[in-house]
Structure to design on (927 residues):
């Protein structure tokens, strides 16, 4: 037991978890603002991917902070879902371009009151 | 040492993200996203998650972004800007919201204080320990979600094919 | 037999239900058998019950039969309880007897109608209600019957519902009655508050046994208030001033209805009620005065209007109002049994006159204007002779029934210090004789004025219609002798003696000196006045027919006033009806209902629509704005966590 505690010393150069979280928050907000700012649908998709990554970063940071592996496993699943979503979303974008000949989100506004 | 590495890669990620949002051509945005992903992968390394870092590069940057680039190339790759924005107010609102949320988040995040993260034994004994642990947990406790995601991928494939195929 | 008393009202009710529910599909003989059978059975049972009652000793003649507990609340109980005493026995026999006769008459009179079953159903229902009214042992049950007869009156007046005038007349009758009923109900409330019970025995017993609590009132006291309120109800139901206006219009109903309801039975309910409450009225000078004055004024006024009316049924209607006034006069001067006696004899000859008028109307093919009749005595002899009998009876000619009853009233007025009442009553008697024989002469004598094409109707009616006439005529002749006064030497007044036990709670002031000689003289005077009236009618309408028109020309203003019934209906219209209707239309309908209520409801709808109009703009199909809203929501939650929850 004592050797374990001895091993659990903190490294002075270690980065506090907060910094990772702040980075994650910044990336997330940049992505969120980008979703609204960009008009090209593919650009919107890219921003969404950025947001997902920011969330992943947060997961991994907590995983390390709490010494649990579950955060990383969740990141694993998030990536799988992101891949699937990207595939389908891009398929839809292709269909949109084929029918309307535009990639602008502002032009696809028929479903309204 | 770690701290400087963190600052370095963090800065790259942020700059790439900002470029993603700011650039006018979607191709540039995609490329800067690739850069950002790689920077984040390095940060994962710093966070002692080598497997996740590898998967990030292989799957995210290597597969998903390639797919994005395919589609960008397919559809109008060098679109030189679009029509002037008729709803600029949305942009302003978004910026305001973004700033506001950052301001509100900062104190919350700052307040997080795990009692000086203890290093677990697995970390001490080497990197492969993490992968072993990850694998064991994945295939025991998370077996069902794992199988479900494989079905999910199958569904996504079928969906993508059906949606995008050319109608005769 | 008294134990089967409950069957007497219930048999007609059952008949009404049968005819009402299934009568439409059944042949007419079945319908009339059910209706007349139940009426006849009720009459037989009533006779049996009354005979049983008569076998008891006079002070035992008070049979109460409990049916079921209707309302029980705390110590208050209103029971469905029937009372058979001399007063209700007389009413019972009149209602069932005359009712049965009129049911038989209706078989012939209504045989051509499509709503045959409906008529008999309503008629039986009326019998049930009237019997409930007269047999009830408490005010509440009596009120049930009171309202029931009002309902049946409305239903039967409006029997020819495809005629606008009939529907209007029915409504008028019901509404005017309702006004009277408001007073009646207030009286019942006051009784309950005072006596804590609505049972006749308890209420009247409390009055009689507590002379300190309930002294004879000279001014306005508790009993006076009760009496006046109850009398308001009586003016409505029994067509006295000011609520008589519905009765002439009620002639829109079929003639048997006019005979049964508006002559013999329903309109007498007010008189019955006042006599039943003799304990209350006799102790209140003011109430008695009001009753007497209203009665005599009504009698005189109605008689004057009847002098010039042209519709045969209207003459009879105003005659009914007038005779009802006599009955109230009798009650008002304290001669309660005289009032009931006149009620009974009036039922005989008035029903006879109405039924006869029905035969006359049938004979001239539906014509009701007296000026378009004439000479019918050659064609309808039975009708002629029975109607003459009835007219003689109502005029008070010795020895027919009306003589005895009317004379007793006039004598009571004199004896109880109301000489003015006696004088006016005498004058009214003369007018009665005049207009009644005017009716007889114009319809049965003289040249024939009816249109040629109705000649094929010109025959005597069927036996189902003439036999009732004969029966009623016989009753009109001999019916008076049960109340023959003592001066005739036939013994004491049996009718008055019979009714004594029912009036035992009444307060009896010191009776006046009996003066048989004066009584006989007064009787002679009234017969003389009647004969004068008849002879004047003869002169005007038989010997010198043109003199009637000449007189009308010279006194044209007076004639018009009488013919237009003193413009009372027009007055009511202007004062009550028009303001109510226009107030309802302009204020209640157009402003309150349409603008305020509808406006509020529609306004709510419009407000919601306008908000929705604003909100729907959120759905503009733009992904960017949707994303903005999502982000906004997330930031709001963040705000809540970060700032508000610290």
């Amino acid at each position: 037991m004592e050797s374990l505690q001895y091993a659990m010393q903190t490294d002075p150069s270690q980065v506090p978890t907060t910094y990772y979280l702040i980075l994650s928050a910044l990336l997330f907000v940049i992505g969120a603002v980008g979703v609204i700012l960009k008009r090209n649908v593919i650009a919107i998709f890219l921003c969404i991917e950025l947001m997902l990554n920011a969330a992943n970063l947060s997961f991994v940071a907590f995983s390390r902070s709490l010494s649990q592996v579950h955060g990383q496993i969740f990141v694993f699943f998030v990536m799988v879902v992101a891949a699937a979503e990207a595939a389908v979303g891009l398929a839809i974008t292709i269909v949109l371009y084929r029918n309307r000949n535009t990639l602008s989100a502002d032009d696809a506004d028929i479903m309204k009151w | 040492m770690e701290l400087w590495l963190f600052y370095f890669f963090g800065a790259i990620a942020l700059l790439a993200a900002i470029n993603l949002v700011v650039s006018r051509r979607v191709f540039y945005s995609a490329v800067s996203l690739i850069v950002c992903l790689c920077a984040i992968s390095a940060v994962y390394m710093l966070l002692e998650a080598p497997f996740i870092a590898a998967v990030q590069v292989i799957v995210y940057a290597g597969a998903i972004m390639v797919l994005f680039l395919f589609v960008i190339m397919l559809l109008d790759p060098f679109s030189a800007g679009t029509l002037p924005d008729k709803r600029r107010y949305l942009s302003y609102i978004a910026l305001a919201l973004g700033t506001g949320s950052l301001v509100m988040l900062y104190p919350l995040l700052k307040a997080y204080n795990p009692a000086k993260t203890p290093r677990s034994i697995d970390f001490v004994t080497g990197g492969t320990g993490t992968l072993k642990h990850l694998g064991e947990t994945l295939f025991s406790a998370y077996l069902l979600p794992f199988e479900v995601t494989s079905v999910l991928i199958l569904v996504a494939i079928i969906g993508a094919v059906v949606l995008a195929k050319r109608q005769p | 037999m008294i134990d089967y008393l409950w069957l007497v009202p219930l048999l007609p009710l059952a008949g009404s239900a049968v005819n009402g529910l299934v009568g439409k599909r059944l042949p007419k003989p079945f319908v009339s058998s059910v209706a007349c059978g139940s009426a006849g059975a009720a009459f037989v049972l009533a006779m049996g019950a009354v005979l049983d009652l008569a076998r008891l000793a006079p002070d035992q003649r008070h049979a109460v039969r409990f049916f079921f507990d209707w309302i029980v609340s705390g110590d208050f109980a209103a029971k469905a309880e029937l009372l058979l005493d001399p007063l209700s026995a007389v009413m019972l026999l009149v209602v069932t007897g005359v009712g049965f006769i009129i049911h038989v008459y209706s078989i012939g009179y209504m045989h051509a109608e499509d709503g045959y079953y409906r008529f008999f159903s309503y008629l039986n229902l009326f019998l049930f209600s009237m019997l409930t009214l007269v047999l009830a042992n408490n005010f509440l049950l009596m009120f049930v019957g009171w309202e029931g007869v009002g309902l049946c009156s409305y239903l039967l007046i409006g029997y020819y519902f495809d005629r606008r005038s009939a529907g209007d007349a029915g409504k008028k009758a019901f509404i005017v009655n309702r006004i009277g009923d408001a007073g009646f109900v207030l009286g019942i409330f006051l009784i309950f508050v005072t006596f804590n019970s609505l049972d006749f025995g308890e209420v009247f017993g409390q009055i009689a046994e507590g002379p300190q609590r309930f002294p004879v009132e000279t001014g306005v006291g508790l009993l006076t208030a009760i009496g006046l309120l109850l009398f308001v109800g009586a003016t409505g139901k029994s067509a006295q001033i000011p609520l008589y206006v519905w009765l002439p219009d009620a002639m829109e109903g079929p003639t048997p209805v006019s005979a049964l309801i508006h002559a013999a039975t329903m309109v007498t309910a007010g008189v019955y009620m006042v006599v039943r409450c003799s304990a209350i009225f006799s102790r209140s000078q003011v109430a008695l005065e009001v009753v007497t004055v209203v009665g005599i004024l009504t009698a005189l006024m109605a008689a004057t209007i009847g002098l010039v009316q042209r519709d045969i049924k209207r003459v009879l209607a105003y005659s009914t109002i007038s005779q009802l006034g006599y009955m109230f006069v009798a009650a008002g001067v304290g001669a309660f049994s005289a009032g009931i006696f006149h009620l009974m004899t009036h039922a005989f000859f008035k029903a006879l006159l109405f039924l006869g008028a029905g035969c006359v109307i049938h004979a001239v093919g539906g014509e009701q204007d007296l000026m378009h009749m004439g000479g019918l005595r050659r064609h309808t002899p039975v009708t002629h002779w029975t109607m003459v009998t009835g007219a003689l009876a109502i005029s008070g000619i010795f020895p027919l029934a009306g003589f005895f009853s009317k004379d007793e009233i006039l004598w009571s007025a004199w004896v109880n210090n109301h000489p003015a009442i006696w004088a006016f009553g005498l004058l009214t008697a003369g007018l009665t004789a005049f207009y009644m024989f005017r009716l007889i002469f114009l319809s049965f004598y003289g040249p024939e004025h009816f249109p040629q094409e109705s000649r094929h109707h010109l025959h005597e009616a069927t036996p189902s219609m003439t036999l009732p006439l004969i029966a009623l005529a016989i009753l009109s002749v001999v019916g008076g002798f049960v109340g023959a006064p003592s001066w005739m030497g036939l013994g004491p007044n049996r009718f008055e003696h019979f009714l004594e036990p029912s009036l035992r709670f009444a307060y009896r002031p010191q009776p006046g000196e009996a003066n048989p000689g004066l009584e006989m003289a007064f009787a002679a005077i009234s017969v003389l006045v009647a004969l004068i009236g008849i002879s004047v009618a003869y002169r005007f309408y038989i010997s010198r027919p043109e003199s009637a028109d000449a007189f009308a020309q010279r006194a044209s203003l007076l004639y018009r006033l009488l013919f237009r019934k003193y413009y009372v209906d027009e007055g009511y219209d202007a004062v009550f009806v028009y303001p109510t209707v226009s107030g309802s239309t302009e204020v209640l309908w157009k402003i309150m209902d349409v603008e305020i209520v509808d406006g509020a409801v529609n306004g709510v709808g419009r407000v919601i629509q306008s908000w929705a109009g604003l909100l729907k703009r959120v759905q503009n199909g733009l992904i960017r704005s949707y994303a903005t809203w999502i982000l906004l929501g997330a930031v709001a939650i963040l705000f809540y966590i970060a700032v508000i929850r610290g």
